[in-house]
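Ticket #377: bound-state structure for uridine-5'-monophosphate.
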Amino acid sequence: MRKMKIGITCYPTVGGSGIIATELGKMLAEQGHEVHFITSSTPFRLNRMYANIFSHQVDVNTYSVFQYPPYDIALATKIAEVIKNEKLDLLHVHYAIPHAVCAILGRDMAKSDIGIVTTLHGTDITVLGADSSLREAIRYGIEGSDVVTAVSNSLRDQTYELVGADKRIETVYNFVDEREYHVKDAGRLKQELGIGENEKILIHVSNFRNVKRVEDIVETFHKVHGKVDAKLLLVGDGPEMGRIVQLVNKLGIEEDVLFLGKRDNLSELYNISDLKLLMSEKESFGLVLLEAMACGVPCIGTAVGGMPELIDNGVNGYLVELGDTEGAAAQALQLLTDPEEHARLVQGALATVQQRFHSTAILGEYLGIYSRLLEKG
Ligand code: U5P
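RESOLUTION: The complex was predicted; output attached.
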């Protein structure tokens, strides 16, 4: 395949989507393609120098004449500039709103016919839930893109349902960097956290928003905790944190719940964990599940959104109904007290990542899409 020049636009600091866009950019660069990030700030996981990754920052002027700074116009202008100056082959943008719309506008400004790939991560649909007046804009972004992908079949179907776009949407799953997320020795981390050698560890990682239902995680742990020696690691931070601290205190389990705040090197924390919990009421993919599985951690999740596409009941974890903390606790107890069953699910989790979500395979799917577009052009 010939080397391409690819423009990538994402919100570099927004959860799973920013991470996927950045990781994809890094993998493309490692394959010799030239990558141009066009974003409001430098992608945060771009942690080493790549000769063939360039970062174009969007500056928004805040003239007093504008009641709202015109970020979208500034981004479209920057996209047009980079298309022309760098002679890009294609654009890959993450989110229909505003990025696909800005890409279409930027392409128009540059008088170019460059292909646009838009990846939907779920936030578009969340935005729509909050503001249906944006439906037309989302549809415009989707229909004006040359190829649209969604990170799960669930998100694809939900997008058809809510936006009714006249466009084929392909599922391309998320992935993790296996060089970072794999089974490894976490050294003395367990002791350093004050956790006993024989204690089991349950872990939850999220942005502590309402939709993550962290209270269900705490309730589940509370039911498990009386029956096996265990600690709960709560990783991340967000608006619900205060309420969760109160609940933990109310239940009297503060000694066994460790609030670790926002962290960077999650693979070590996964590597000391026995079980991962994610009990969200909405989840378009659930990247943290894949991260945990890549480190050999079985997962219990709610049967909502994309989670049933990752969690295979009894193979790499268990699915429970939304809010079913009894069911989650029962599954957790069974798993934590049966070493053979646990070992079987650990293997299942590792196999899932290898067989269905391997980064090389996912990169191949994106490269296939890019080549199709370039051949068409
Ligand atoms: N994340 C961190 N540190 C934290 C909390 C979350 O790196 O303290 C990362 C997760 O590892 C995951 C992403 O890659 O944020 C959240 O993904 P999602 O829940 O938006 O899919």
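RESOLUTION NOTES: The pocket of uridine-5'-monophosphate is lined by residues 15-16, 19, 205-206, 235-236, 262-263, 266, 287-288, 291 (CB under 6 Å).
TICKET STATUS: resolved
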